[in-house]
């Protein structure tokens, strides 16, 4: 297993913020948030590493790797769990899918279809919920920002991220299913914190990001109602900007690029860029 030596930034001892993009519900904007804000930060000079964990491998695809499993030379997160390489050895540069050029400052650990078997893989391990907590120190000091992109459930991958991360970002749409996913996530955080609070893990959500909202009632009052409920329930941790429904997001998915790279002036890209700024990830 070989990676370009230039792939991994040096450990300069810098402070690394580990953000966890999550919601127990699928299709809630987790990968869109992670890719958009991560690219925006990298474009502003921050060293960023994505750590996506979904068997669907969407974020790997948005970083120029269409099918990481098909190339045996490419390390994946699953190889790290298999002990084939360390987490830092598995870091690869993100690529612009269109030009195939390396995107400066942006890195990732590739996903694998085999992440589906994570539960079984770690079944025999002591304190297996701490799997990511044990690995993450390898990346700290090298990056300004690590963004963990969770799958759409709160099983072992997500639990590991909730324990290991520094800030929990609940991504939701202004729709019932995704908003409910957020409530379930909060309950789960409370439950996990009871056992793992001593690790220093967060005991609640740090941010709520509302994606795919609408700007006026004619597009559907129910969206505005749910957004209102979310803002009331979560108060100041809700990102000021609601990311509106924007066709550039699915277009960017088709082009296999973060929306902030694909169309930086698109409404959704501008909103995500502002959200990253509100989170003080960059100026
Ligand atoms: N602001 C938006 N406008 C339009 N479509 C969006 C927007 N945000 C997300 N989507 C679409 O919603 C789907 C799910 O988003 P995604 O970020 O992949 O969710 P998750 O990672 O939580 O499963 C994608 O097909 C994406 O194109
Ligand atoms: Mg996703």
From TrEMBL:
Residues in AAA domain copies: 18-195
UniProt-listed Pfam families: AAA_31 (PF13614)
InterPro entries per record: AAA_dom, DNA_Partitioning_ATPase, P-loop_NTPase
Highest taxon of source: Bacteria
Name by which UniProt lists this protein: Sporulation initiation inhibitor Soj
Organism listed in the record: Streptomyces caniferus
